[in-house]
Specification:
alpha/beta; Nucleotidyltransferase, domain 5; Transcription Termination Factor Rho, Rna-binding Domain, Chain A, Domain 1; five-stranded mixed sheet; 13 helices; 10 strands; about 45% helix; about 20% strand
Length: about 280
Amino acid sequence: MIIIADSGSSKIDWRLVARNGSISQATSAGFNPYYEPLDHLRNNVREKLVAKVTEPVSRIFYYGTGVSSEKNQQNIRAVFLEFFPKAIVEVEWDLLAAARALCGHEAGIACILGTGSNSCLYDGTKIVGQVANLGWILADEGSGTSIGKKFLVDYLRNKLPGELAAQFKKRFPFTREEFLAKIYQEEKPSTFLATFSKFIFQHLKEPYCYQLVSDSFTEFYENNVMKYEGYRQLKVHFVGSIAFYYSDLLRQVGNDKGIAVKNILEGPIAGLTLYHQADVESGE
């Protein structure tokens, strides 16, 4: 049996693939080693996973946020080895999860468009190039946070069409000071800004919203995808909630740029399961 984990800040999607090919799944609270104690992950494994394990675990593939440091990788491995001492544990970052889920064993450009954004050049096995990820304050073009930030700036500066502004105020009845407090004084301001993307999607027929999202995707293509050599010859793939729900517009903007967009997934776990089935079949 192998175990696959796609870990984000809000939730972890688990898949357990048995030697006979049967697949079971679970969902638990998210985990980021920079923000939560290891006991958080340990409890997730104990409460959500252990009871589903019906045969020896040979490999564990954990993909998540906050795993760039060797110390965090070692700590996460140690937690799994407490429960599955004979398993080989691979801890990788979420961008490799996106590449493997989207591209499989083929070369391509893998992109994340969710609360944040990211991209990489993938050779079919490993990541071989990446545009610098600068986070939501400096960049994250095309992400829910970036789109929400631009929308809120225009709202607070009275640049939105009147009816659209009135509907937004009804949905988010905060004063200017309350908005600023949520962004500058409370935790996870990027997540708060990204919540506006649902409202924008529901009003995508409004010319303002359509143009805002279109321009944001153009920025992403120009500052990420188009920076990779040979991007016109490679297939470009996306994973994430923004990419999934705005897929039609995302494809249209890509087409206008001469970019071939292929797979668009809401999350990577299904693609990762397909990618790693060979590890079960080979018995490795």
